[in-house]
What we know:
It is built from 6 helices and 2 strands. By secondary structure, the chain is mainly alpha-helical. It has a two-stranded parallel sheet.
Amino acid sequence: MDELRKLxxxxxxxxxxxxxxxxxxxxxxxxxxxxxxxxxxxxxALIRAAAKNFENVVVITNRRxxxxxxxxxxxxxxxxxxxxxxxxxxxxxxxxxxxxxxxxFLKKQxxx
Length: 112
């Protein structure tokens, strides 16, 4: 925090991230190249980092949560720890499903 202050950098307190649609590409029968092109590398890392630090960083990976977060910010000036915790769990679930879809697709490629 001292380094941030010294450099005049504000800490990140919210991450909103939508991943590349690799699952959609897989569902629509994308070939190996198309699927590999859609794999998001930085997004899952950013989501996991934010979710790991949910006490200080709000992580949103679901557009349906925007209104809830905005409501809390407007009414309380902050997002509750309960909401942060729930959003972090959703974030980890999302990245786990994302990775599972890629794993399953790649595993199937070996069988074909």
